[in-house]
Amino acid sequence: MSASLRSQVLDFILKQYKIHGDRPWRNDPDFVVVRHPDNKKWFGLIMPVPREKLNLSGSGNIDVINLKTDSVVIGSFKAQPGILPAWHMNKSTWCSVLLDGTVPISDVQFLIKVSFDLTKNKRRVLK
Hints:
Layout (H helix, E strand, L loop, with lengths): L4 H13 L14 E4 L6 E9 L10 E8 L2 H7 L5 E3 L8 E5 L6 H15 L8
Antiparallel strand pairs: 1-2, 2-3, 3-5, 4-5
């Protein structure tokens, strides 16, 4: 039995960044926030969203991950099925990525890396 894409994404984040997601809302235990340990900024939010809120056909919820994006990077992904304007976040700087297999896991991982880099501390190194 293969792990769900949601589990694969959380495993990738743990292996890549040594970060466990947290569940900050008692009423929404399926919402998982992944954030930088040093600055506490979010770089991802994994959650079930009702399909109708994303203008998708069918009923019930679908898992998505909201990720911070860069206008250059997201431009090449916007036309790809499964990458949508962010649900419940700033649509110009965040996107929602469907975790139903529509988007290849390699693309999801790439977008996670972009989001991680965009939200990390920007410390200048003085020489």
